[in-house]
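Deviations from the work plan: none for this task. Representative record:
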Amino acid sequence: MIPFVIDGQPVEGKEGSNVLQVALDAGIEIPNLCYNESVKPYGACRLCLVEVVSRGRSRMTASCTYPVQPDIEVHTKTEKVLRARRMMIELILAMCPGDKRIQEMAKEMGVQEVRFKKEDKDCILCGLCARVCDEVVGAHAIQFASRGDKRDMTPPFGGEATSCIACGACVVVCPVDVIRMEDKVDERTILRWKRTIKMKKCKVCGNFFAPWFQVEKFREKANLSKDFFDVCYTCRS
Amino acid sequence: MERISSPQALDQYRSEIIQKRDPDQPCITVCTGTGCHASGCHQVVEAFKKVLSDHPEGRRVNLRMTGCHGFCEKGPLVVLHPNKILYQKVKPENCQEIFEETILKGKIIESLLYAHPATGQKITHEDDVPFYKRQMRIIFGNNGSIDPTSIDDYIAVGGYRALPKALLTMSPEAIIQEVKEANLRGRGGGGFPAGVKWESCRKAHGETKYVICNADEGDPGAYMDRSLLEGNPHSVLEGMIIGAYGIGAHEGYVYVRNEYPLAVINIGIAIQQARERGLLGKDILGSGFDFDVRISRGGGAFVCGESSALVASVAGDVGEPRAKHIHLVESGLRDRPTNLNNVETWANVPVIILNGAKWYARIGTEGSKGTKIFSLVGKVNNTGLVEVPMGITLREIVYDIGGGIPGRKRFKAVQTGGPSGGCIPESLIDLPVDFDRLTEAGSMMGSGGMIVMDESTCMVDVAKYFMNFLKDESCGKCTSCREGTKRMHEILTDISEGRGTIDQINLLEELGWATAEASLCQLGGTAPNPVLSTLRYFRNEYEEHILNKRCSAKVCRSLLKYRVLSEVCKMCGACAKACPSEAISGKRKTKKVEGIPFTIDSEKCIRCGMCFESCKFDAIEVQ
């Protein structure tokens, strides 16, 4: 364990861990949107900014991508940090003014008004959906397209996400809840990725329990007996 | 082709090449660099080929296509060796005369000589042209005399002399020490000491290490790395081999954007030739050191010049930067220690090794040693590539080398450092140019773009231009850079179109600060510089746009007002005819008809300036 200090409080982090995770574990609040412990830190939203003093030098950086190091001093609530975070949330709110979570975060951080022209986007481009799809699921169904202000999260060529297994991981991780999933008896649709997949029927109870492709993917990965996934979770236990 | 397997064999080979060549043989060198290419050098080359093949004496003359000489403004450039007679703006139809008069009879063709812009005096020899005279061309100098596709040309002018010295008489540590003592700082923009970087990479754990040459130059108006790679690729390779030996790397990459086709071709040829001669590959010159280089072609994204994005791109991933709390020298390409330097930095290495750090460190200033190549462009008489010692003042570059501002206009500012740099005003024209002074002035060295601006340049428009570039070229990964550049551009557009408010100036400053502080990589970290530096030195222009709805430089179209001066108007009707939006009314005066002076309906006027262009009597006023 590597000892260091956050806001004067001594903390410890595992080697290879990041400052944000250690802070959150220690009950120190740092706002964040693009961080999820199940995937690698990415550093996109810039809300988790902190000041890190290392070898006498202070710099502002995202805490999610900052690896824990001995003898660093982290400051999470300096005027400089709060000022920069306020600008970040104001920029995000200007992108997605209709989003409830962003509105609440902005309010909490003291942003009263948006001084930029309001857009009507819903996605904040944090990339969590694609990262979960790549790193956890392994389906690589969606990815960022274009760059700069044209950046967009999209299935290949904007069409149907043909590698999507409709597992719904992206639906779960999306911090602004804009990826919707619809289950209709024997099929599931991930609306945003234009993907519909038939559900598999449990051999025992006859209920539809998971999308076909997801079951196949799990079968490949899990190294269990061939018929393990023919039965639903409830009937298995 | 024969492999050269020892330093002695290399010396032997060099003397054979030199012996075969007659130093007094007439040689026509035609610049085929980027600038001259655009002004038609290839037609000139073809014309010379024809002239030489048609004439019995033609066989006696050597014709050589070289890389960029630097004096692009006056291209196509032809230099006649051995006397180094410079002919400028040569056309294919001049070639016959050049051959018959100058080469055969030794007569100078006055009309093709360069005339001093101030005195009108004609200058015959290349070295006497003030543009070249004030430069110090230790890196770029050979560009004009060698054929970049010939390794023999490079060897003949003393190329690959540093290599045996490094590989066989120096230890890797000694090489790093030499580069550290020379205080060679990275020419790509950051200015980080190359020797320190090499040392960290050498000390980093791991068997496999990489060296990479960053040739992803993408600043608007900058083309020095391109011209080096096109004109003298072996000097870059030689630097890379020496660096790799110092660091302990056996694999290298040249990351070059595919939009530089000639650079891709020439470095490819150079690598091939070096391999055939045994200067790349196994056991180079019998030293036991193995090293090879491959080319990685980039898709032309500005962000791929950023080191971590570049490394991702070389590995075949999307060119997006990552947080670099663990440096590339420890974990870079394929998570191995990776040393990245820019084209010009690599090209400096053989010069340092050959002449020694002490010699090198005598050039330049306290903190910045050696020379720097700048691409001098914009509102300046002699546009082109210039190599100057660090510490030279902006005034010397703009006036002595650049020949001043065309059209008797007033100098306003110099933009240095590309989109990440800033604008330096007239009050700082005596600023010595080096890494630290430029940074203090709110700009940066960058890779060496230098755009000269005169009074007809609007600084709000300049900031808007760069922000437009950056909002497109930001990779879009982090909020601060993607949204920050977009919003700064939006505000600048508002100001330039007359919708700006004074509060927006404060917002620009606040947003600029946050973008610089919060961004993940240095693209975002320096992106606000064009805005912040113009605000620092030209705030009055912003205020003028906002408060008076006026653009003094007459650039921001929405703020312009066109008016017909009725007392000057001859009622010819040319303006009304030229106007595409039928905004001008009046009655044309003829012998029979009494005319009515023309007027412009500002509601209908689209401010295209056609009326202004069409009026022969200067009766259209622009405000």
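The first helix of chain A runs from residue 19 to 25.
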